[in-house]
Amino acid sequence: MEITIELPETLGQQLEPFQDRLPEVIERGLRELLARESAELERPLMLEHLVRLAKAHAYKQLAARQ
Q: Is the pLDDT of residue 58 over 90?
């Protein structure tokens, strides 16, 4: 597939040495972005789980005192 894009001059200059490896550069960058996005989506779920565990622990401690 052929795609044409416009880049800022500075980015074009940074990519110039990698001209023959642009598909690899894009693929690696995309993989990294997707991994970060996935981690960002999982973070609230992990926090929710930790809050539930803390609540359960607190309830057990209260029940043990009574």
A: no
Question: Model pTM?
Answer: 0.54
Torsion (CA) 15, 16, 17, 19 in degrees, nearest 10: 90
For 3, phi then psi, to 5°, come to -130, 135
Residue 7 φ/ψ, nearest 5 degrees: -125, 150
Q: Which pLDDT does position 19 carry in this prediction?
A: 93
CA distances to 5, 14, 43 from 47, in Å: 39, 39, 6
Q: By the 8 A CB rule, do 28 and 20 touch?
A: no
At which residue do the structure tokens 């690899």 appear? 24
